[in-house]
Design goal:
The chain is an alpha+beta fold. The protein is built from eleven helices and six strands. Strands 2-3-1-4-5-6 form a six-stranded mixed beta sheet, sandwiched between helices.
Length: about 325
């Protein structure tokens, strides 16, 4: 097989089992009919031991033709048939010439059956790989290899269901590259693609938990969904990501950009999802926060109505964040 993925190999085995089960009934009926023909003296006049020896080879041919057999099963069948026919030879019930002829037929059957099985498995593997490739293309952004919108919806539905069931908080970060269109238009799409790849690398470096869901949902817009995280962790990771993007030292292309280097603006939301909550609702809330952050001058984070600067969370920053959140919560209660 071309792939070493255990899950993929299991799919091949399951399909082979299904293929073999479908042929079980028809093969059993065929074996019964062959048995009637070979052991009916009215139809075939050869002595019983000869009919039995030929019947063994006929069954071997049928089994190899009807089923997909692994190599060890084929060898086991060959040894079994040869032993039974050898017993008949040892008892002098069949001639040595007939035994050798049947042995050659048996070996040829196993060889041809092995080649046929190999071809079928190769074809099956190729088909499954093509299906898997199509599934990947349908859920993955071609440039960044992150999830696209379709892939995000599939992954997010599972994460949301888990958090709803266990009443775990879920965090969403909606990140937008600042002035990316100007950068893209000024330096060209190839350079723009290179920037997107570098930003993607930074995002992947920042969010490395197996449960973290990272997607590219627009030209320069990324949505990161983090199941089972509290607000402090969510803010810390958002600030860390902002720092990583600034550390790329990609020269800003916008003349009105107060930053010397490429930056990102983020809107984030965190809550324990309820039954009515959906990915769309989380996205709209994060999008409103992102719009708020852009109006505040970009290169910052908006969370619960507060604007928080990007960068590593120092002790003073952490206190400021805590105060901002407390103030925002109080404002929400008043409203």
């Amino acid at each position: 097989m071309k792939t070493k993925d255990p899950g993929f190999e299991q799919q091949i085995k399951d399909k082979i089992r299904s293929y073999n089960r479908q042929r079980m009934t028809l093969s059993s009926v065929t074996i019964l009919c062959i048995g009637i023909v070979f052991f009916s003296s009215a139809i075939w006049t050869a002595i019983l031991p000869v009919r039995a020896a030929v019947f063994i080879s006929a069954i071997l041919i049928l089994v190899c033709a009807a089923f997909i057999l692994p190599l060890y099963s084929s060898i086991l069948l060959l040894l079994t048939a040869t032993c039974l026919q050898g017993i008949l030879l040892g008892l002098q019930m069949i001639s040595q010439e007939l035994f050798l002829l049947l042995l050659l037929i048996n070996m040829g059957t196993i060889f041809i059956g092995g080649q046929t099985t190999h071809t079928i498995i190769q074809t099956l593997t190729s088909d499954l790989e093509e299906i898997k490739q199509l599934e990947t293309e349908a859920t993955t952004d071609n440039l960044t290899q992150l999830l696209n919108r379709n892939g995000l919806e599939q992954a997010a539905s599972t994460a949301l269901a888990f958090c709803k069931r266990d009443q775990k908080p879920i965090g969403v970060i909606l990140a937008d590259i600042d002035y990316f269109k100007i950068y893209n238009d000024t330096l060209g799409h190839l350079e723009g693609d290179n920037v997107l790849k570098q930003v993607t690398k930074s995002i992947k470096h920042c969010f490395r938990r197996e449960t973290d869901i990272i997607s590219r949902i627009g030209g320069d817009e990324f949505l990161i969904l983090l199941p089972d995280v509290d607000e402090s962790y969510l803010l810390e990771m958002a600030q860390t990501l902002s720092l990583l993007i600034n550390d790329l030292k990609i020269q800003s292309a916008a003349t009105n950009d107060p930053c010397d280097f490429l930056s990102i603006t983020m809107g984030i939301v965190s809550k324990i999802p309820q039954a009515e909550d959906s990915l769309t609702r989380f996205y709209h809330t994060a999008d409103q926060a992102l719009y708020h952050a852009k109006k505040a001058g970009r290169n910052c984070i908006s969370f619960q109505g507060s604007i928080i600067q990007g960068g590593p969370p120092s002790n003073e920053n952490a206190l400021s964040i805590s105060n901002d959140l407390a103030y925002a919560a109080g404002q929400n209660e008043k409203e």
